[in-house]
Design brief:
single chain; about 230 residues; alpha+beta; Umud Fragment, subunit A; eight-stranded antiparallel sheet; 3 helices; 12 strands; about 25% strand; globular
């Protein structure tokens, strides 16, 4: 009597392994070229993003349209914001990378903030009405966390070519460009460090929603007392 051959089973496992490898490869290409998943680790961008949110980030939006005032950007903070990071121990680097890949944790040098000033802008806090001004005009900020002032820290900065001035929406909880005024680069983030724009909250499901790109934060023409 002939014995049952096991070769087809071995070929089946090889097919599964090949399929998994191809899936990981395709996922890696998509996430490095078009879309990636990031984790929101803090309350610095409330109310738009809450701690624990997972967001889908487009790497291509800013290729056709330049970064503008009011845009929310995900960026690599190395060389600018990195001193504000938690500084994960080197032994945990692999686990941190795996957690980011699965959308379970944030990258140690990756940040999300809102663009307040672009190249050539003079950003000041604050005018007599307590508002930020850009190039002498007050800026309306409907996205601010309820009860927060535009900034408790006074500053006056000129944004150089190729840089961005970035701030969180929950100003009292956000470590941002203001926190690095005395550091090399003055809190300005290089434009080439921008990874992309958040386009969708994908988790938790009750917060599943598209993130539309806001119109440029046009300075208000209203004067104090009007």
């Amino acid at each position: 009597m002939e014995h049952t051959k096991r070769q087809p089973r071995r070929l089946g496992w090889r097919f599964v392994l090949l399929a998994v490898f191809l899936a990981v490869l395709i996922s890696g290409l998509v996430r490095s070229l078009w879309l990636d998943v990031y984790y929101i680790p803090s309350a610095s961008m409330e109310p738009m993003f809450q701690e624990g949110d997972r967001i889908l980030v487009s790497r291509t939006d800013f290729q056709s349209e330049p970064v503008g005032r009011g845009d929310i950007v995900v960026f690599d903070g190395r060389g600018s914001f990195a001193p504000l990071g938690s500084g994960a121990a080197p032994a945990l680097d692999f686990l941190a990378d795996a957690g980011h890949w699965l959308g379970l944790s944030g990258g140690d040098s990756t940040y999300i903030k809102r663009v307040i000033g672009v190249a050539g802008d003079h950003v000041v806090c604050c005018d007599a009405g307590g508002r930020l001004t850009v190039n002498g005009q007050p800026v309306e900020e409907p996205y601010l966390y309820a009860g927060d002032a535009p900034s408790q820290l006074k500053f006056s900065v000129m944004v150089p070519e190729g840089r961005l001035w970035l701030m969180g929406d929950h100003r009292s909880q956000s470590a941002d460009s203001r926190s690095l005024l005395g550091a090399p680069g003055g809190g300005m983030v290089p434009l080439e460090r921008v990874i992309g724009r958040p386009v969708q909250i994908i988790w938790p499901l009750d917060r599943f929603t598209a993130i539309t790109r806001p119109p440029e934060a046009t300075p208000s023409t209203a004067t104090n007392g009007q």
